[in-house]
Design brief:
The complex is a heterodimer of chains A (437) and B (328). Chain A is α/β, with parallel strands linked by helices. In chain A, 27% of the residues lie in helices and 23% in strands. In chain A, strands 1, 2, 3, 4, 5, 16, 17, 18 and 19 form a 9-stranded mixed beta sheet that branches. With 328 residues, chain B is of the alpha/beta class. In chain B, strand 3, helix 4 and strand 4 form a beta-alpha-beta unit. In chain B, helix 2 packs across helix 12, helix 3 crosses helix 4 and helix 5 packs across helix 12. Chain B is globular and about 55 Å long.
Chain lengths: 437, 328
């Protein structure tokens, strides 16, 4: 392991910032302070003007392995994540086959342990994600799985969802729901509204999402369970979750970068790159989700990074699979949404690191799981999972500059503000000058 | 906004200006005469290659387009793409690249998915793409031939000609479109054409078969179908698209017919001169009674006949001169 000295950084703590140096050695933060002495052999990184904070944590990554390795693998996805400033990702269960048992979860954890970052797993709630029978969540929880979701689709059957919430209560884990009522979404491929109607595309209404958010809030109330709401896309969904939280329910939520940067008008030209579930919504929804980020009512920004092989995005809009890339651009887009130059670094790290680490329960190291602590305080003795973010950087996103196996980014050519300069994962410099080492 | 189809792909009637529509109608008028000759052929597109790419079977539309292309002396490549090609894994991009490699000037494309021709036009920007119906989005040549038919009938009645009248005959024209508008690409193209040409369009149908946010479309929804029949100068019926699941939007076909079918009894409310249209194929006894479909004011067969000159006009305008002009 290398010895690293981060010089003249703006250190972003949980409530404040401070200019100083950070010495990283043997996988841990050894010292934080001003004008630290450089030990022999230490590599010095000038962080003048840059924010240094805990590495980002993605609650919602589709690594595609096993089953869709042509689109992404655990190895390639971890590399992409590191470029995006992430030191931990939660691998979603909708692989082929689904991560619904101990053997498959172990496989992903083992593969993940060979990558430079930490890979946690979100197990399936139901067997095969078919929404019929509960998956062995207690067994998976013993392996260290903290989140469970059938993401891709939600658990449609309310009785089954109620049972799942009740069953996992003693396990100390959290269920995460993809809120879309599939009968109401009716196989649609974009937001329902004037545009879908004029374009003759089937619509997925905001109602189809909100009715499930409402249902699940009531299921949480009834069961006394805990639930994380994945990728909320409408103003009303967010308002419902905020209200439920005020009422004392144990609910958390995330929003995805595409939902707070793009609106349904992106689908006007029928480019399947912009097809995603839940769909891109209205300008008003974008505005309200941004407000949620700024005001701190959202717990986490989560990417829903969904790689797809290029030929699948060359199908007709209604036939193409839903989903878009997110890991490489999420930090810059969050910075932009929080006001760019006016962005509050504390909020920024709350949304990208500390908030999601709390939801995924990654704030403490778990040596049985071989994962280190994330979203932690910047203090001596803590695991060195850090990111160096340059808020002054201005750059242009390009699909040619991506680092994974797929290129289905909706941001090709978009002007970006702020950029991840370096990522230090488990004490190692894994990304420098924006490139993986 | 597009002011002329010359050298352009025809993907949708939305965004086409009135002058572009009138140009197509006037050009089609000049081709009507060709179709009445003993030798029904002009050399306008001699040496040009038009491919027809039908993912969704439609003998009528395909024949109409291919006939139009041949009457313009174009070479026609007819490719029947089984709808299962997608399941075999061939993307739209690969299919069009294969055809493009054969050297084509235009592709006439029918697809079951909305927007497929828009996507293809991005993949091959040097080829003119003519949308022959895409999902529930648009069927531009149907919209054009419907407008052409209306203008032709009205011009005959007023002893004038289409080209002389331009778009005048559409001013204040009352058009009522009835039935399954939600699933209808024909309705979308018809509405765009009629509204742009100056007509007033109203729609009638079961609320479940009207598109989402119809109140933000440039049309009015009628509450009383029977009254609207008296108002209408033109009634455009649509096929109830049972294959698109329209069945579950209404309790039964019988109820649909009783509430929004053009039955004999209901047709009595029409003025004798009201034009009755239907894009075909007709579900006789469902959206229109057999007897009504055969009334003198029903112009259903004329619509079919006008398909050829309209498609000749579209092919001529979009293809002719594109490559030549580029070379000059």
């Amino acid at each position: 392991m290398s010895t690293l000295l981060l010089r003249h950084a703006t250190l972003v703590h949980e409530q404040s910032t401070q200019v100083g140096d950070v010495l990283v050695r043997e996988g841990r933060i050894e010292q934080v302070g001003a004008q630290l002495e450089r030990p022999a052999g230490a590599r010095e990184i000038d962080c003048t003007g840059c924010w240094v904070g805990p590495g980002f944590v993605d609650l919602h990554t589709h690594l595609r392995e096993p089953g869709r390795e042509e689109a992404e693998t655990i190895e390639s996805g971890a590399r992409v994540a590191a470029v995006g400033g992430y030191t931990a990702v939660v691998a979603m269960a909708n692989t082929e086959p689904a991560l619904d048992n101990v053997a498959l979860v172990s496989y992903v954890l083992d593969r993940g342990a060979r990558t430079p970052i930490d890979v946690a797993v979100c197990g399936a709630i139901t067997q095969g994600r078919r929404g019929e029978l509960l998956a062995p969540m207690a067994e998976m929880a013993e392996l260290g799985v903290r989140l469970f979701s059938d993401d891709g689709t939600g658990v449609q059957d309310p009785m089954l969802m109620l049972r799942a919430l009740t069953y996992v209560k003693p396990l100390g884990v959290r269920l995460a729901q993809h809120c879309e009522d599939e009968l109401l979404a009716a196989g649609g491929s974009m937001n329902e509204g004037l545009l879908s109607s004029r374009r003759g595309l089937g619509g997925r209404s905001s109602l189809s999402e909100e009715i499930m958010v409402m249902r699940d809030i009531e299921l949480v109330r009834h069961s006394g369970g805990a639930l994380h709401f994945l990728h909320l896309s409408t103003a009303r969904s967010l308002a419902l979750v905020i209200q439920a939280r005020c009422e004392g329910l144990d609910v958390t939520c995330e929003v995805a970068p595409h939902h707070f940067t793009l609106d349904e008008s992106a689908c006007e030209g029928f480019d399947p790159i912009f097809k995603v579930h839940p769909p891109l919504r209205t300008k008003n929804d974008v505005t309200e989700l941004r407000r949620g980020l700024v005001e701190g009512t959202v717990d986490a920004v989560a990417t829903d990074h969904a790689p797809h092989a290029p030929q699948l995005k060359d199908l007709a809009f209604d036939e193409a699979p839903a989903g878009m890339l997110g890991l490489e651009h999420a930090a810059s887009l969050t910075f932009e949404a929080l006001g760019g130059d006016a962005c509050d670094p504390v909020r920024f790290f709350q949304l990208l690191s500390r908030g999601p680490a709390r939801v995924a329960r990654l704030r403490a190291a778990d040596h049985r799981l071989r994962h280190s602590a994330h979203g932690a305080v910047l203090a001596a003795g803590e695991d060195a999972n850090l990111v160096v973010f340059d808020p002054a950087s201005r750059w242009s996103a390009s699909r040619d500059d991506l680092h994974g196996r797929s290129t289905n980014t909706p941001y090709d050519g978009r002007a970006m503000m702020g950029r991840v300069r370096a990522t230090i994962a488990k004490g190692n410099l894994v990304v420098d000058q924006g490139e993986p080492l | 906004m597009i002011s002329t189809l010359r050298g352009q792909s025809l993907l949708s009637l939305e965004g086409l200006e009135r002058e572009a529509l009138v140009e197509v109608l006037d050009t089609a008028e000049s081709f009507v005469e060709v179709n009445s000759r003993a030798i029904k052929k002009v050399p306008a597109l001699k040496g040009r290659v038009v491919a027809s790419l039908f993912y969704e079977e439609s003998t009528r539309t395909r024949l109409s387009f291919e006939t139009a292309a041949k009457r313009l002396s174009a070479d026609v490549l007819s490719l029947a793409v089984a709808s299962s090609s997608v399941k075999k894994g061939e993307s739209l991009r690969d299919t069009i690249a294969t055809i493009d490699a054969l050297g084509i000037d235009a592709v006439v494309m029918r697809h079951q998915s909305s927007g497929a021709s828009v996507q293809v036009s991005r993949y091959v920007p040097h080829v003119r793409v003519i949308n022959a119906g895409d999902g529930q989005h648009q069927h531009p040549t149907q919209g054009l031939l419907d407008a052409f038919t209306i203008r032709q009938v009205l011009a005959e009645r007023r002893h004038t000609t289409g080209p002389e009248s331009g778009a005048e005959l559409f001013e204040q024209l009352h058009v009522l479109i009835v039935g399954d508008i939600r699933h209808s690409r024909v309705a979308r193209s018809d509405i765009d054409a009629y509204v742009t040409l100056g007509a007033e369009v109203r729609v009638a149908g079961p609320r479940t078969l009207l598109p989402v946010d119809i109140d933000r479309w440039p049309v009015t929804v009628v509450d009383d179908f029977d009254e609207a029949l008296e108002w209408a100068d033109v009634v455009g019926l649509l096929r109830l698209q049972r294959e698109r699941g329209s069945g579950s939007f209404v309790p039964s076909l019988g109820e649909f017919t009783r509430t929004f079918g053009l039955t004999v009894q209901r047709a009595r409310r029409l003025r004798p001169e009201t034009i009755i249209m239907h894009p075909g194929p007709i579900n006789r006894g469902v959206e229109i009674d057999s007897l009504v479909a055969d009334l003198p004011s029903a112009v259903i067969e004329r619509q079919v006949a006008n398909g050829v000159p309209i498609r000749m006009a579209v092919l001529y305008l979009t293809v002719a001169g594109t490559r030549m002009e580029g070379a000059q």
